């Protein structure tokens, strides 16, 4: 068994606790029953540098030794950071520890799997797949390593047979770049933070435009300032919604409905419908209306009408809630002076629209 230690200067724009450990393994195959771990890499961040430790098994007989050495080393850490550790690294390590009759050293760690956090944004960011190398390309993280984990299996067997130093350097380089790239992936979490509400509503404006028929229409623009910068610009469109994020801000556009909508009373049993007025009134008032001009209200006609400007909502987040017809969507909220004056209400509404554009798990 060999242990390699290296200190790599690295400046990061976000905090990483010194109790966090970045972790990645290299194996001779995908099955923990038939294969073994030949290289275990991990790194911590402190004093503007990464401290990288790599535990290397020169043959399958030394796997137990690297597991014990790693177990001793990781005791001072509390949080594990991986890329797809949930799906591969952790269950593989657990099974190999069980094979050797060892306790799983990571069983009590808090775990952050970057793949799980980032994968909901594959479509938004137009990523070809969710491989770690694809995210590195997206963030312009350069690599010297040119091999996949699968290709390295043959290189490892070559090293086992010949102790070839070039093969060893290729194995160590791949694992090193996998581990050291993880903290550099953190800026991509700015998208998750943004859609989770880590932004402030800085400005709202209403602008007129001409629609396809030449009629005057209106649209509302939000300027949203994220807590952290976007590493790359992005955009998404859904029906009347359009979002563009770039560097220090995001611009959210939504079409304003101008005209007449209906508010439907929920307790229609307590109302009468007046056909000639095309409106509903409460029973306490309807007693003053002749019976021939009123009828018991139904859910579909128990409404009052209101004219004005309205914004779409895709579930009933704001009340009163207006509709074009009883079963029609979207729903609407009235665009009031209170809305235009309140940053709190604007952020709540913006978060609602963001949840429609990018649903989070």
Overall strand count: 16
Oligomeric grouping of the chains: single chain
- Biggest pleated sheet: 7 strands, antiparallel
Assess the beta-strand content as a share of residues.
25-35%
Principal-axis shape? elongated
Low-pLDDT runs: none
How would you describe what is shown here?
The protein has 361 residues and is α+β, with helices and mostly antiparallel strands. Helix content is 29%, strand content 32%. The chain contains ten helices and 16 strands. It has helices at residues 63-73, 85-99, 114-118, 132-138, 149-162, 165-184, 189-195, 283-286, 337-341, 343-357, and strands spanning 2-9, 20-27, 37-46, 49-56, 79-82, 110-113, 199-210, 216-226, 234-238, 241-246, 249-264, 271-274, 279-282, 295-296, 303-313, 331-334. The strands form three sheets. Strands 7, 8, 9, 10, 11, 15 and 16 form a seven-stranded antiparallel beta sheet that branches. The protein has a six-stranded mixed beta sheet with strand order 1-4-3-2-5-6. Strands 13-12-14 form a three-stranded antiparallel beta sheet. α5 packs antiparallel against α6. It is elongated. The two termini are 42 Å apart. The mean pLDDT is 95.
Write out key terms for the chains shown:
seven-stranded antiparallel beta sheet, 361 residues, 29% helix, six-stranded mixed beta sheet, 10 helices, single chain, alpha+beta
Secondary structure blueprint with pairings:
Blueprint: E1 2-9, E2 20-27, E3 37-46, E4 49-56, H1 63-73, E5 79-82, H2 85-99, E6 110-113, H3 114-118, H4 132-138, H5 149-162, H6 165-184, H7 189-195, E7 199-210, E8 216-226, E9 234-238, E10 241-246, E11 249-264, E12 271-274, E13 279-282, H8 283-286, E14 295-296, E15 303-313, E16 331-334, H9 337-341, H10 343-357
Parallel strand pairs: 2-5, 5-6
Antiparallel strand pairs: 1-4, 2-3, 3-4, 7-8, 8-11, 9-10, 10-11, 11-15, 12-13, 12-14, 15-16
């Amino acid at each position: 068994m060999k242990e390699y230690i290296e200190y790599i200067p690295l400046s990061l724009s976000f905090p990483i606790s010194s109790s966090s450990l970045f972790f990645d393994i290299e194996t001779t195959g995908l099955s923990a029953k038939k294969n073994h771990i030949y290289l275990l890499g991990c790194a911590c961040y402190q004093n503007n540098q990464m401290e990288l430790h790599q535990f290397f098994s020169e043959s399958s007989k030394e796997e137990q030794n690297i597991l014990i050495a790693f177990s001793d080393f990781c005791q001072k850490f509390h949080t594990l950071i991986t890329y797809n550790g949930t799906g591969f690294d952790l269950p593989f390590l657990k099974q190999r520890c069980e094979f050797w009759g060892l306790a799983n050293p990571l069983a009590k760690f808090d775990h952050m799997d970057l793949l799980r956090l980032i994968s909901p944004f594959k479509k938004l960011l137009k990523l070809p797949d969710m491989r770690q190398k694809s995210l590195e390309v997206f963030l312009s993280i350069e690599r010297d390593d040119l091999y996949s984990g699968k290709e390295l299996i043959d290189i490892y067997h070559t090293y086992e047979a010949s102790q070839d130093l070039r093969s060893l350097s290729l194995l160590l380089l791949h694992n090193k770049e996998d581990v050291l790239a993880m903290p550099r992936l953190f800026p991509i979490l700015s998208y998750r933070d943004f859609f989770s509400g880590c932004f402030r509503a800085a400005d709202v404006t209403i602008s007129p435009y001409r629609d396809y028929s030449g009629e005057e229409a209106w649209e509302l623009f939000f300027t949203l300032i994220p807590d952290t910068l976007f590493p790359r610009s992005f955009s998404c469109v859904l029906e009347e919604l359009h979002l563009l994020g770039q560097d220090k801000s995001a611009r959210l556009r939504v079409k304003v409905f101008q005209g007449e909508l209906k508010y439907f009373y929920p307790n229609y049993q307590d109302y009468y419908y007046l056909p000639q007025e095309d409106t509903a009134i409460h029973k306490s008032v309807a007693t003053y209306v002749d019976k021939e001009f009123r009828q018991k209200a139904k859910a579909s006609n128990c409404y009052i009408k209101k004219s004005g400007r309205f914004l779409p909502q895709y579930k009933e987040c704001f009340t009163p809630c207006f509709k074009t017809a009883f079963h029609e969507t979207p729903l609407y909220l009235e665009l009031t002076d209170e809305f235009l004056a309140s940053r709190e209400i604007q952020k709540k509404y913006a978060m609602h629209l963001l949840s429609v554009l990018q649903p989070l798990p």
